[in-house]
Amino acid sequence: MNLRNITLAVVGLFLSLSFLTSPVMAEEKDGVMMKNGKVSKMQEGRDIGPMDRMMTMANGTKVMMNGKIVTKDGQQSQLEEGQIMMLDGKLIDNKSGR
Q: Which is more confident, 89 or 18?
């Protein structure tokens, strides 16, 4: 009986860990990108259309529809052509423009 409980606990642990890793992988490809002078939404690495409202990223950074970036502490910058702001707030310089 004791071995059965340990086995069930290990199986449960592995199942819960596998569910935790799946959403993170999808979110790594989600965000917004400046493309042809307009901000587009990206989902799973693909352009899914123009940004239709301001977005707040996980770290508190806000991205406006015109590409203006305002960090949680109030610093402002502009999303440049090819740059991608991921949902976690990480800014990626993608010169190829995907």
A: 89
Per-residue CA distances from 37 to 13, 29, 43, 80, 94 (Å)? 47, 21, 19, 8, 14
N- to C-terminal Cα distance for the chain? 56
Distance CA 38, CA 11 (A): 47
Instruction: Count the residues in the chain.
Output: 98
Query: 19 or 69: which carries more pLDDT confidence?
Result: 69
Q: How many C-beta atoms lie closer than 10 Å to residue 81's C-beta?
A: 13
Tell me the C-alpha distance between 35 and 49, whole Å: 11
pLDDT tens-digit profile of 71-89?
A: 999 999 999 999 999 999 9
Category of 68 on φ-ψ map: left (φ > 0), alpha (ψ -120 to 50) or beta: beta
pTM to 2 decimal places: 0.67
